[in-house]
Amino acid sequence: MAAADADAAEVERLYELGERLSSAKDKSQHAADYEAIISSVKGQSVKAKQLAAQLIPRFFRSFPALAARAMEAMFDLVDMEELATRIQAIRGFPLLAKDAEFVSKIADILGQLLASEENVERDAVHKALMSLIRQDVKSSLQPLFKHVESGSEIREKVICFLKDKVFPVKAELLKPQAEMERYITDLIKKSVLDVTGLEFKLFMDFLRSLSIFGDSAPRESFQELIEIIQAQADLDAQFNVSDIDHIERWTSCMYMALPIFMRGGSSSKFLNYFVKQIVPVFDKIPEEKKLDLLKTVAASSPYSTAQDARQLLPSVVQLLKKYMPGKKVDDINHNYVECLLYTFHHLAHKTPNTTNSLCGYKIVTGQPSDRLGEDFSEHHKDFTERKVTAVAAEPLSKEEGGHCQIDPGHTNDIPNQFFFLLSPSPSSSSTVKACLPLTGTEETVRAASKRLTQGMADFNKAISSAKTEEEKTKIKSDQHKSTMTMRAYNNILAMAQPLRAKSPLFIGDKKITLSWMEQPKKPAATTAGGKRPQPATNGNTPASKKGRGEGAARNQLVNRAFEGLSRGGRGSGRGRGRGGRGRGWGYR
C-alpha cells in the first residue's frame, strides 16, 4: 500500500511540474522543474516514467543546456522492460530533433529498435523514424545506411524499412530533387559493397527510378550505374571456374545491367571479361551455368558497340564450331546454338566486314577494314567452303559429316548450302568442297522439330484425361517446355538460313525473339480488304512490328536472373577475395 501511495505521489508531483512549466511565460526560469522531470526516469514508478516520457520531449526545446541529459534519459526509457514506457518514449523522439547531431543519434537508436519483436512497438518505431526523416532527411538516413554498410545485426531490418517505408515516398522526401537524389545515391553506393543478390537488386531498382538516372539523363549517369554493377560482379578479379558464386554473380549482374545497356551504358567491361576470362575455360564450367552465361551474352549483344563486337566475334565463332554438328544427329543443344547464332548475327550486323577476315566472307563496306585484298581463303574453308581431299572412286552421301570423300567430277551437283565448317581429310589427292555443319544443324533441328510437333498434339488430350491436378500440372509443365523448345528450333532455322550466302545479311533487328523471352503479340487478323501482314520467318512478330515492347522482355530477364538470389542469406558466400565481401548470390 505504501508503494502504491508513493507511486501515486510521484505521478502527482510530475503533473504539477508539467503544469507549472506549461503556464510559465519564461520557462528558462524553471530549469529545476525540468531537471526534476529528467531525474524521475531513475525512480521506481513505472507510471511516473511513462509520464516523464511525455513531459521530457514536450519541454525539450526550452532547455538547451539540459538537452544532453534529457536525451540520455530518453535513451534510458527505450531500454525499460515495460512495453508501454518504451512506446511512449519512441513516440516522443521526433520532438527532440532540434539539430543534426541529435537527429543522427535518434535515428541510430530508432534504427536499432527496428529489431523489436512487438508489432505495436515496431509500428511506433516506423512512425517515429518517418517523422524524423521528414524533418531532416540527410541526418536521418545517414545512420540508417551506416547500419547496412557496416553489416550490423539489424541491417536486414533497416533494408526492409527503407524498401517498405522510405523508397515509396521518395518524391516527397528527396527535395531539392537533384541534390537529395545525389546524396542518397552516394549512400547506396557505399552500402552495396556487401549485400545479397536480392538486396543489390532492390537498391539498383531504386537508383534506376531516380530522375538523375532517368531517360533524359546524360550518358555519364548510365555509366555510373554500370560501374556500380561492375564492382559487384568482381570484374577485376581473376575468374575461378570452381567459384560458383562468382559465376552466378557475373551472370546476375549482367542481366541487371541489360536495361542500362539499352539506354547507352557500356557493356565493354563485361564482354571483355567474358572473352578473356570465361571463354578459355568454358568447357570446365558446370553445364547448368553455361546456358546462363550464354543467355546473358546473347541478350546483351544487340547493345554492344562495333568495337566490342569485333572483340567478341572470334569467341562466338569458336563456340559455334563446338556446338553445331557437322552431320545430322539425333538432337543438338538447341539452347546453346540459339544463343550463339543470335549473338553472332547481332555482333556481325554491327561490324559485318569483320567476318571477312574471320569467316572468309566477301562483304564490301568501302572501309579499309574490309581487307578485301588479303587472302582469307583458309578462314573461308573453315567457315563456309572448307576444302577437303577427295578419292574419285568413292561416292558421298550429302548427309555425311567429318572427313567427306567426294568425287571431284560431281562437286557441281552438290548445292552450295551443303558446304560449311568441315575438317580436311587426312589424306590428299584432290580438293573439293565439304559438307556443311550448318546444314547438319538444320537437318537435325527440322527432324527434331517434326518429332516434337507430333508429340505436342497429344498434350491437350493428356490434360483432358488427367485424373489429378498434380498430373495436369506436370503435363502443362512438359507442354510449356516443348513450346519453348519449338521456339528455339524455329529461331535456329530462321538464323541459319541467311548465313549460306557469300555476303550474308546479318539479323540486327527485332525479327528474332529469343525463345525464353516474352514473345510479342501476333498481329491482329485483318478485315476484308485489309492488307495482310508479312509472315515472320521464325514464327514471331515481323520486323516491322514492335510487339509488346522491350520493357516486358527486359523485366523478365532481370527477374529471371534474381529468382532465389538470397539463397544462403547473409551467412553464405562471405569472402570474395575482398576482405570478406559477399553474402552469397545463389543464381538459379
TrEMBL record:
GO terms for molecular function: mRNA binding. Transmembrane segments: none annotated. Residues 517-588 are annotated as: Disordered. It holds the Pfam family API5. SUPFAM superfamilies: ARM repeat. Belongs to the API5 family. This is Apoptosis inhibitor 5. It comes from Leersia perrieri.
